[in-house]
Amino acid sequence: MKKNKLLKVVAVIGAGVLGVSMFAGCAGSAAPQGTNDAPTTQTPPQGDNKYIVMGTNAEFEPFEYREGSEIVGFDVEISKAIAAKAGKELKIEDMEFGTLIVGLNNKQMDFIAAGMSVTEDRKTQVDFSEPYFTSKQMIIVKSDDGSIQTADDLVGKKVGVQLGTTGDLFVSGTDGVEVIQFDKAPLAVMELKNGKVDAVVIDAEPAKRLVEGQDDIKVLDVPFTEEEYAIAVRKGDTELLNLINSVIAELKENGEYDRIFKQFFDVEE
Question: Model-level pTM greater than 0.90?
Answer without folding.
Answer: no
